[in-house]
Amino acid sequence: MNGIKILLFGAAADRAGTRETVLPVEEEVALGDLWPVLAGRYPKLAEMQHNLAFAVNGEYARMEDRVSSGDEVAVLPPVSGG
Amino acid sequence: MNGIKILLFGAAADRAGTRETVLPVEEEVALGDLWPVLAGRYPKLAEMQHNLAFAVNGEYARMEDRVSSGDEVAVLPPVSGG
Amino acid sequence: MFAIVEEPIDVGSLIVAAQRPDCGAISTFIGTTRIDESDGARVEHLEYEAYRPMADRKLEEIGAEITERWDVREISIVHRLGRVNPGEPSVAIVVAAPRRGPAFEASRYAIERIKQIVPIWKREVWSDGYMWVGSQTGTRSTPAAK
Amino acid sequence: MFAIVEEPIDVGSLIVAAQRPDCGAISTFIGTTRIDESDGARVEHLEYEAYRPMADRKLEEIGAEITERWDVREISIVHRLGRVNPGEPSVAIVVAAPRRGPAFEASRYAIERIKQIVPIWKREVWSDGYMWVGSQTGTRSTPAAK
Known about the structure:
The complex is a heterotetramer, with two copies of chain A and two copies of chain C. By secondary structure, chain A is an alpha+beta fold. Chain A has helices spanning 10-16, 31-41, 43-46; strands spanning 4-8, 20-23, 29-30, 53-56, 59-61, 66-67, 72-76.
């Protein structure tokens, strides 16, 4: 796949209106660099920024972690299992 | 029944060699007054005196509680249910 | 439901019976027969006896103590008597509550209280004799220090 | 055993599978769907979704954390996805240990950790709309203060 696959869950999927999208990237970037693009594309998602966590390839990640084409990024609202 | 019915359980029954006996009483006595009689009758039971509790008619009782003919006294080693 | 039984305890059906739409949590405690070993001998099974009906009433008292202290909507305590084989349940406690904190606390409280006030006794039947738990009385020649 | 399932959870068989002769205690926690009411509306059921396989791995991680901290011999955590009706289990935790203290502590720890790190989300489906728990997002016009 060309670009970064974005998965959205729970309230984040609701607010974005989609469960999956792709962000084209040309080179390796910081996870945090993706956020303005996502927030611009989904303004209602942007409102919950401070409640979101992120995973890269299935593991919790920080905004400074690097991602590149082919990676899977998950947008995770506060978990509420149990 | 004429007298006080004594029930023994667990290690107390083991040491006394019986699970049940009757102590004749002529009038109301303190529960504590029965102990020398029981201890005399069952010397190996006497050895565990400080580990025993007693019930009168199915409820925990103190040595000063009164008992009389027809009552049921239970000799209770440390409980170990569960 | 508070019961003293002679048969194996069906914990699954106690749990199903405790499922209620006004509760979000069920905490269960099950005591099972653990096989200790010492001096080359081992526990083969446990054997329980009770002073009834006092023991039945004490289980109900524990239930009343719990509903006084916590918001708990369903409590079952079932204790088995007679021979209980290795790994089998001797006691099952099932507590349903709106929230999990009280459910956990109440089921823990129940087992501690059972061990304090319910007139039930167990002896360990070892390969080389038996021993009344808590009383150091039995037929083993080399009683294990408990 | 760590599993995420779409069907009802059979807690009884998880408990039977946890009975071991080297353990004296089994502590179980079951989360069930509680029906809240507010503003004349009520929760009709819950609906769970997960990010898999990350959620599966996180359940296993919790199991590893527990065996590092406590002497526990068997741990099962099963979480259900999809629609869960009132009173039905959404999660079951079964811990077997030689002694009861660690069994209780480990099962409590497991549910707290599930609520912290496992990527599973629930929404309450009310008679007047739905609400994602923890996110204040949904279609109810009068969201209940949680």
